[in-house]
Specification:
About 55% of the residues lie in helices and about 0% in strands. The chain is mainly α. The longest helix is centred in the first third of the chain and has 33 residues, at about 55-85.
């Protein structure tokens, strides 16, 4: 989830688009726009030659975005429904980690599926469905900031106050939360320790209130998703924002504020974000290359920048982001801290996401957007 200030107007449709629409980026093009010949996608599939007309390009993009994103919205809705169904409701007790081990494992597996789907679509929710987005994906600290006047949220299991995907995550992974995450959250006004349901009533409320609200919110999203909601310029700005989101995830990890911090799968979130970025860019890639040599050069630079991020993520094993050094400072990291696995990841990500660096992938994506006729960043 992108932080509330960051996710405002700039964010839009971030998604995984499993479409064979990418085109070769290594050949120069004439100075006048032409339609490139079909080549192949980064995965080796056959590419589809784009229409030459910009109006047709836009229409094609809108329909492709809708169809592909719908797959992930459906997957999200199915996963959270499965999670609710798996939640145990013993008649005379709360959850027991031994007796309910199979149910807890099933809930965690469903949550991971939901999270994977959501990482492919998260940018769409902020500008298009802001209320649903907050309900589904706001972090614990986001909610507590809004609930400060009420003293926070003292009950973990109902459909009021702190809700959504991370509220559920905080319960079902409560026994494995890293110490640095707990230390961060203890500093928040209104903090209540994460826990499994301790009574039959808490177990019933977790299933029938907290999980039921998440199911209802995702069902609402599914019902409202239509092509009429898609603006292709906003969709492209969302592509750029998804790259920027990857830096935010790394920076927040140093203070225990990152997403998926209870399940310890933020590194997988980063990989999912990058996969969504690459496949989302593929929908615009042929259009960009059709703009002539300038478009082809930008495409080459963008592809290289995304490959650089992929290589950096490939150096990290497992689902969790590397443990930040105790002495880490994002404002002024030391040479020693930058040499750690976390510091190496931080350096690689910030190099590609810094808009002020003209050779960063974000700067190149900005330039590509302008070439396609989209408003410059901040306009």
């Amino acid at each position: 989830m992108m932080s509330r200030p960051f996710r405002g107007v700039a964010l839009a449709l971030l998604f995984a688009l499993p479409l064979g629409v990418a085109c070769s980026s290594t050949q120069s093009e004439p100075s006048t726009p032409v339609t490139p010949a079909p080549a192949s996608t980064p995965d080796g599939g056959d590419a589809v030659a784009p229409p030459a007309d910009d109006t047709a390009q836009r229409a094609q993009a809108v329909q492709a975005i809708h169809d592909a994103l719908l797959v992930d919205v459906q997957a999200l809705a199915k996963a959270v429904a499965d999670l609710k169904d798996a939640a145990p409701t013993p008649a005379d007790r709360g959850w027991d980690k031994t007796l309910d081990a199979a149910a807890i494992a099933s809930m965690r597996a469903a949550w991971v599926r939901a999270r994977t789907a959501y990482e492919h679509i998260e940018g769409a929710l902020a500008p298009l469905f802001p209320d649903i987005d907050t309900a589904i994906d706001a972090r614990y600290d986001d909610f507590l900031a809004e609930l400060m006047a009420q003293g926070g949220d003292t009950y973990l299991f109902d459909d009021k106050g702190v809700t959504g995907m991370h509220a559920v995550e905080r319960v079902i992974y409560s026994d494995v939360i890293p110490a640095r995450v707990t230390a961060f959250e203890k500093s928040l006004p209104g903090y209540v320790a994460a826990a499994l349901p301790a009574t039959a009533q808490e177990a019933a409320d977790f299933k029938n209130e907290l999980c039921a609200k998440l199911v209802a919110d995702t069902a609402t999203l599914l019902g409202e998703w239509t092509p009429a909601k898609i603006d292709v310029a906003i969709a492209y700005s969302g592509l750029v924002s998804l790259v920027e989101e990857q830096r935010e995830k790394v920076v927040k990890a140093s203070t225990g504020e990152e997403e998926s911090r209870y399940a310890q799968r933020t590194m997988t979130d980063l990989r999912d974000n990058l996969a969504g970025t690459k496949t989302a860019y593929a929908i615009f890639q042929p259009w960009l290359v059709s703009k002539g040599s300038g478009g082809a050069e930008l495409d080459h630079a963008i592809t290289a920048g995304l490959a650089s991020l992929e290589a950096a993520y490939g150096q990290v094993s497992g689902d969790a982001i590397p443990e930040p050094p105790a002495t880490w400072s994002a404002e002024n990291p030391s040479a020693a801290d930058l040499a750690t696995p976390f510091g190496t990841l931080y350096t690689s990500v910030t190099a590609q996401v810094d808009r002020a660096k003209t050779d960063s992938v974000v700067a190149k994506l900005d330039a590509a957007g302008v070439l396609l006729g989209f408003p410059p960043p901040g306009k």
